[in-house]
């Protein structure tokens, strides 16, 4: 009489295959389904049977991250639009591309703001104080 583990081992060998990449957490084998979905994509990401690690699909990761970042951006813009106390509602449509430099002071303000924004987008620490007369683009 065969044991249940022999049956499971046979079923695993029939339905699953071992991926070439080892598990990033424990170094064990990652198993993936042999059968694909009707559209040709993988049924699910590879899984480690030793530690339970489940790899996520890269395309789904990128899409989820993009949706999350878009959601955060929309939330911040909506907060700015509907919760801020600025008098000119047209300011929300202003961009660096449409900024008009009329004198040296506005040109300097633009350069400083552009440099600071670049540093912020690169996740570098930056300290700045925006000062100047009204209407110079702080």
TrEMBL record:
One of its GO terms (molecular function) is ATP binding. The keyword Nucleotide-binding applies. Keywords: ATP-binding, Nucleotide-binding. It comes from the Bacteria. This is ATP-binding protein. It comes from Enterococcus faecalis (Streptococcus faecalis).
